[in-house]
Design goal:
The complex is a heterotrimer of chains A (402), B (294) and C (348).
Chain A lengths: L14 H14 L20 E7 L6 H17 L3 E2 L2 E9 L4 H13 L5 E4 L3 H14 L3 E3 L15 E3 L4 H16 L3 E7 L2 H16 L3 E8 L8 H10 L3 E5 L2 H13 L7 E5 L6 H6 L7 E4 L8 H14 L5 H19 L5 H8 L5 E3 L2 E5 L5 E2 L2 E9 L2 E10 L2
Parallel strand pairs in A: 1-3, 1-4, 4-5, 5-6, 7-8, 7-9, 9-10, 10-11
Antiparallel strand pairs in A: 2-3, 11-15, 12-13, 13-14, 15-16
Helix pairs in contact in A: 2-11, 3-4, 5-6, 11-12
Chain B lengths: L1 H35 L6 H15 L6 H26 L5 H23 L15 E4 L2 E4 H23 L1 H11 L1 H6 L4 H27 L5 H16 L4 H21 L4 H15 L14
Antiparallel strand pairs in B: 1-2
Helix pairs in contact in B: 1-5, 1-8, 1-9, 1-10, 2-3, 2-4, 2-8, 2-9, 3-8, 5-6, 9-10, 10-11
Chain C lengths: L1 H4 L6 H9 L9 H24 L2 H26 L7 H18 L4 H23 L4 H21 L27 H24 L1 H18 L5 H26 L9 H14 L5 H16 L8 H15 L22
Helix pairs in contact in C: 3-8, 4-8, 4-10, 4-11, 4-12, 5-6, 5-7, 5-10, 6-10, 8-9, 8-10, 9-10, 11-12, 12-13
The chains are: A alpha/beta (402), B mainly alpha (294), C mainly alpha (348).
């Protein structure tokens, strides 16, 4: 045992460090104000409208944050830095990996920077931790990724979502898989956290409704599983004819590669929520991902004029193809654009009111609108990983009926 | 019994493959602690850098010569990083300040790696000729994992021979036991210790690279690897080669066979197993004989 | 950096303070006592006055720093005072926070009640887990406490009544007493957090000055010697562990009173590591040093990082490395006036 043995001192006898500490605290006072009287964030002001952009710039979700920033900024660039005809000032915050950093960083946008609305948030727990702050400050939060079902449970006028709910993405796939499999059974597998469970539950509901049957299920420790062999053995011994999974990020890469290298794919078709093969993840999976089928509300190969135009602009600006995460943030900017056009005031409450009336949004993903819970009412697509323009990509097979 | 074996044999074999990687990464951490009494929390970052070196060298098609080159590059990098860390920690005596210093280095390294390689998950493919599957117990099993077991076993044997049977090994062991005496016979112990640190870090970088086709490379992997290596090292017994091996084998089995048998409790198994081992055998399963600490 | 800054203006406080660090701590030095009282009073005054001039965001930051600082003090009681380095205090921090949150949601929004329940639950868990953990020491103890922290983390991650991985949300704003007016304004909540912090500091100070505190330092400075003298160290270590657990629980209740949300990410390995490193950074063994350490760590991570998009970790890393070489005894051990005894060749 050789841990530090600094002698214990009984009293803080030194004035100097305390004074320095006190002085540095007082420096913070430069921010000014006082915090024992009422005051709302998102106040109406003369200059440009301040919009917060809170996405992960560090930690394991940083890649998503980068895509979202690019999508959001592309929309602004296409509109000369304006939304709804008003100049926009973007204030950025680093959401980080967990609520521990994400909640304070995003709250700062509302309580300190006085933004009129915030776009972003990848982590569902962070979004849940922020919900009360936004509702109380009467500033709208436009969630551009986090998929927790319960975020929009009570349809608060200040919580909006341009992405998806975990349940929806899974549910979109259920009927199609049931039809395709006939009497073969499906094994369900997901990361053992809220998103994984919600996704699997959504799939299970529509799948069994359409007459499908389940061979078994397994939930793998979230964020710490690196070896899926024990779980893949279960799949094999269950005799399942297909597997439905929910994984994202590094877990998606490792899972898909191991699924392939243990040869499970020969006997069981792999299905999943689209994050399984989206963006940089697909590139890292390489050939192992070929043939994987997923449901999602976007693919850059979606064959519409609106999307072609978007993909071209995105590639010109960033030299890479857009991901669903970029589109979600792009559409958040689009929703704000429409809302600000009609908003009676540019404070939080004014924008929130206007968001309720934006109607249809003409998006690269297809036309969509906010439903009564403020989630997107949008098309979902069945995609398959195939060789396309020199690499692998998610080719759209059909639009899924719900 | 036979059917149980049939169902789980693959998990057990796979546990050995995982142990092979863990051993390579953890043995350096253990030796550095044993010889230099340094708690190196930058070990995970060194290992992740090894993985990223793989990313840099092996874009898509991986040939065996290229793979070997990448391994050598990772080893060279690790050696340098280890010597630098040895110099940085040499004046820092107690474990907690070493932790502060090396975790600081790890945070900086993580940021630099993200700056160079981006935040996306990167992947390394195994050499094409080793990428397929072979039939083991009548089931397909990735050949590459068997290769890792072979490489790791070979390195373990070499390490054992060097440490136990050669003059260099004797010098290292003597330095651990009585540094002043070794200095007295005219050996510069700093060189010995720097060499051990360098070799340990080189093994970590090689381990990270060899594991890259399985684990990939992305921000945050350094923490995961560091925690696993720490568990391996304390479970096996600090500062001993055989301890690291036993620890790695145990952790490997817990993570595969254990997970297969009790998958509902999968997320608790690793740390529960570690707690049980440490509470019953506080010095680990096979602690170093030269007990400079305990 | 700090050394050169403090070069001018030597004061009586410094001179006596520097020499007193080796003293036996008898009560016959009225002057430094007076000075320390003045310093303490000044610090309290500043802390109490903050809500009058700080806006809601910085006051929230200040409150989070205080709650985290109390967690760090609990780590210091074990690490610095008793010589048992720990990564497990997040387990009790989380227990206190979740208990307070559950009380708030299902029973009553009284902060006093939440504080009592939260610290009691945390102390109880610390007693039960400490009963086995304190049988070990040194790096093994560190790893056992890491295991405790991680096990509680993973349990919270999958335990539905506390919201599992999504976290515990919907905690109503606190009131001070049962049935009281809910505190909505950041400044008032901060005052409650400050009260909890001061209460916790008072408990920690009393413990350190008590006979138990003397035994704790005895364990740190030579457990074997105490054994040889026939003293039982197990009860001392377990008592210290339980008290530290209760303090960490109190810190958890203060944290959740502010954020009104708690998720498994709040008791992860990084929080445990930062809490331990704050102790080392501040100066293990003193109580106020780690408080400053906590202040610096949170300020860099949450406030400064907002100005350097996504570079919070890098800044912390640089801070840690620089601190190891410039402040060998932590912030508390820094010499604020004179240069170090042995001037180094390296740093300018």
């Amino acid at each position: 045992m050789s841990v530090s043995s600094v002698p214990f001192r009984r009293r803080p006898r030194r004035l100097v460090p305390v004074t320095i500490g006190a002085a540095s605290i007082l420096l913070l006072a430069a921010c000014g104000g006082g915090s024992i009287s009422e005051g709302n964030g998102g106040e109406e002001s003369e200059g440009p409208v301040k919009i917060g952009l809170s996405v992960p710039l560090s930690g394991v979700y940083a890649a998503l944050g980068e895509d979202m920033t690019q999508g959001f900024e592309l929309y602004l660039d296409e509109n000369d830095g304006q939304l709804g005809g008003r100049d926009i000032e973007v204030v950025k915050a680093d959401e980080g990996e967990s609520p521990q950093t994400g909640v304070p960083a995003t709250s700062k946008l509302v309580t300190q920077n006085d933004v009129s609305a915030v776009v972003g948030i990848v982590n569902s727990a962070t979004a849940l931790g922020l919900k009360d702050t936004f509702v109380q400050s009467e500033v709208p939060l436009i969630i551009a990724n986090a998929g927790a079902d319960e975020l929009t449970d009570d349809a608060s006028p200040y919580i909006w979502r341009t992405s998806f709910t975990n349940g929806q993405v899974g549910a979109a796939l259920g009927a199609a898989v049931a039809e395709e499999l006939g009497d073969k059974e499906v094994f369900l597998m997901a990361a053992d956290y809220a998103a994984g469970h919600e996704s699997v539950d959504g799939f299970r509901e529509t799948f069994t409704e359409a007459g499908g049957s389940i061979a078994g299920e397994a939930f793998t420790p979230f964020g710490t599983t690196s070896d899926w062999q024990p779980f893949l053995s279960k799949v094999r011994s269950s005799g399942a004819g297909a597997v439905y999974v929910f994984y994202a990020g590094a877990e998606a890469v490792n899972f898909v590669k191991q699924y392939d290298s243990f040869g499970i794919g020969d006997s069981a078709q792999l299905y999943g929520a689209g994050f399984l093969t989206e963006g940089g993840v697909l590139e890292a999976q390489g050939a192992a991902a070929e043939g994987v089928r997923t449901s999602l509300h976007y693919s850059h190969l979606l064959d519409t004029d609106r999307n072609a135009e978007f993909v071209e602009a995105y590639q010109a600006a960033y030299d890479e193809v857009p991901t669903v995460y970029a589109v979600q943030a792009y559409d958040a900017a689009a929703a704000l654009d429409l809302a600000l056009e009609d908003a009676e005031s540019t404070d939080g409450a004014g924008i929130a009111d206007a968001l309720a009336n934006v109607g249809d949004i003409d998006s690269p993903r297809g036309t969509w609108s906010f439903d009564e819970d403020h989630n997107p009412d949008q098309p979902y697509y069945l995609r398959e990983v195939q060789k396309a323009d020199g690499g692998l990509a998610n080719v759209v097979l059909e639009e899924l009926t719900q | 019994m036979l059917s149980w074996l049939d169902a789980n044999a693959l998990s057990m074999l796979n546990g050995v493959a995982l142990a092979a990687v863990l051993f390579l990464i953890a043995v350096g951490l253990s030796l550095v602690f044993g010889t230099m009494d340094v708690l190196n929390l930058a070990h995970g970052a060194v290992s992740l850098t090894g993985a990223y070196i793989g990313v840099a060298f092996l874009e898509r098609d991986t040939t065996i010569p290229l793979f070997v080159t990448a391994v050598l590059a990772a080893a060279a990098f690790g050696m340098v990083a280890g010597v630098v860390l040895a110099a940085m920690t040499s004046s820092v005596g107690d474990h907690l300040r070493q932790a502060l210093l090396t975790l600081g280095v790890a945070l900086i390294a993580g940021d630099v790696l993200r700056e160079i390689f981006g935040a996306d998950v990167e992947s390394v493919s195994a050499p094409a000729s080793l990428a397929g599957a072979v039939s083991v117990f009548g089931r397909p099993y990735p050949l590459y994992r068997l290769v890792i077991i072979g490489i790791s076993a070979a390195i373990a044997v070499v390490l054992y021979i060097v440490l136990e049977r050669t003059r260099v090994g004797a010098l290292v062991r003597a330095t651990v036991a009585d540094r002043a005496m070794v200095e007295a016979i005219g050996v510069r112990t700093n060189l010995v210790l720097g060499g051990v640190f360098g070799a340990g870090a080189a093994l970590a970088a090689i381990g990270g690279l060899l594991a890259a086709p399985i684990l990939g490379a992305q921000p945050g992997l350094d923490d995961t690897v560091l925690l696993l290596a720490l568990v391996v090292v304390v479970v096996g017994g600090l500062g001993s080669l055989r301890g690291a091996l036993v620890g790695a084998l145990l952790v490997g089995q817990v993570q595969t066979l254990g997970v297969a048998l009790a998958s509902e409790y999968a997320s608790f198994l690793l740390f529960a197993a570690m707690a049980i081992v440490l509470l019953t055998r506080p010095r680990g399963l096979l602690p170093a004989k030269t007990g400079a600490h305990g | 950096m700090m050394r050169s800054k403090a070069q001018p203006r030597p004061s009586a406080a410094d001179r006596t303070g520097a020499s007193a660090s080796t003293g036996g701590g008898r009560r016959h030095l009225p002057r430094p006592v007076l000075v320390s009282r003045v310093a303490l009073g000044l610090a309290l005054l500043v802390l109490a006055a903050l809500p009058l001039f700080l806006a809601p965001y910085p006051i929230g930051l200040a409150g989070r720093i205080l709650a985290f600082a109390l967690l760090v003090v609990s780590v210091d009681l074990l690490t610095g005072v008793t010589g048992m380095p720990t990564l497990g205090q997040v387990a009790y921090f989380g227990t206190g926070a979740y208990a307070a949150g559950l009380v708030g949601i299902h029973m009553d929004s009284s902060a006093v009640l939440q504080l009592l329940v939260g610290s009691a639950a945390a102390a109880l868990l610390a007693l039960l887990t400490g009963a086995v953990a304190v049988r070990t020491s040194g790096i093994v103890f560190l790893m056992v406490t890491l295991a405790i922290g991680e096990l509680v983390h993973r349990f919270a991650d999958s335990f539905a009544p506390v919201g599992a991985s999504n976290g515990l949300a919907g905690i109503p704003p606190i009131s001070i007493l049962p049935g009281g007016e809910p505190l909505e304004l950041a400044g008032f909540i901060y005052w409650w957090v400050l009260a909890v912090f001061l209460l916790g500091m008072a408990v920690a100070t009393l413990v350190v000055k008590s006979p138990l505190g003397r035994s704790m330092r005895g364990v740190r400075d030579g457990e074997k010697r105490l054994h040889a003298l026939g003293q039982q160290t197990y009860p001392v270590k377990l008592a210290a562990y339980t008290i530290a657990g209760g303090l960490a629980g109190a810190a958890g209740t203060a944290w959740v009173a502010q954020t009104r949300f708690f998720s498994p990410g709040d008791l992860g390995f990084d929080v445990a590591a930062f809490a331990l490193l704050s102790v080392v950074l501040g100066g293990a063994g003193t109580l106020w040093g780690p408080v400053i350490g906590a202040f610096v760590v949170i300020l860099v991570r949450d406030w400064l990082s907002a100005y350097v998009d996504g570079r919070g970790a890098l800044m912390l890393g640089v801070l840690f490395v620089v601190a190891v070489y410039t402040l060998p005894r932590g912030i508390a051990g820094a010499r604020w006036r004179k240069p170090l005894r042995r001037p180094r060749r390296t740093s300018p």
